Structure prediction request, 302 residues.
Amino acid sequence: MQITIRNLNKVYSGDVYALRDVSLDISEGMFGLLGPNGAGKTTLMKILATLEQPTSGEVLVDGENISVRRREVRSTLGYLPQFFGAYPQMTGSEFLRYIGRLCGFSGKALKESVEENLIRVGLFEVRDRKVKTYSGGMLRRLGVAQALVGNPKLLIIDEPTTGLDPEERIRFRNLLSVLSRDKVIILSTHIVGDISSTCENIALLSHGRLVFRGHPESLVDQASGKVWQAACDEEDFGMISEQMNVISTIPVEGRLLLRLVGEPVDGFEMQTVPPNLEDAYMHFMENVVGEHVEEEAGVMED
Prediction:
């Protein structure tokens, strides 16, 4: 499956741009869409899921324009929204049977699809429990199961691990990695860890614009020589944090061990360390994107 996004714009009333001239090509595997809250990720996900229409531009799925062939495209996709809800009085299996019937399944095909997907997401043993008794992680896995009922080629997942504990987050990411072997999975998130451990290709959105597209390693390379480790006293923390991005702070023997991104502050001993994707994301958004936004603001003022 091939997804082609060309010159996509979404403008809301009041001339508010949610997306500005976004162009992307996405093929099989796990694709990560990263950006801060308000970057336009959910708007893009809704357009891909045929829930919203773009103001201009186009999205093609295997050459079919989703605005023209919505019914055909919908038959090939599954969607897990950021805020997924299920009927609390239904059991897990009842809810999936309900979704299956909406997808046109019945009889033996419906039964097999429900059982297969309950097993896939690790909920088969609790299939007869009411949804209201499910934990947050179980509910998110049920959300994946309902998106898989029609055996879609394209799976769109928006902010899947928000609110999950570390164990459930890891389990969820592993599940998506397995599913991506024969599907296109677009994973939208503002949590860098969800991207770094699962996606071979990523895109960054900021203020509705596509600001990066490529391999995570390419983004990490841009932060080489910009990530530092330093120890400081508490009274010096404010001075350092005003001039550099503080990625982590660990109290050690009465001092603070800092991981920092940016240009080193004079008067402090700082040692460069290899960057990871989180470091690179902070460096890129602060410097490359930040400078671009400032330039645009200056042009508008002129």
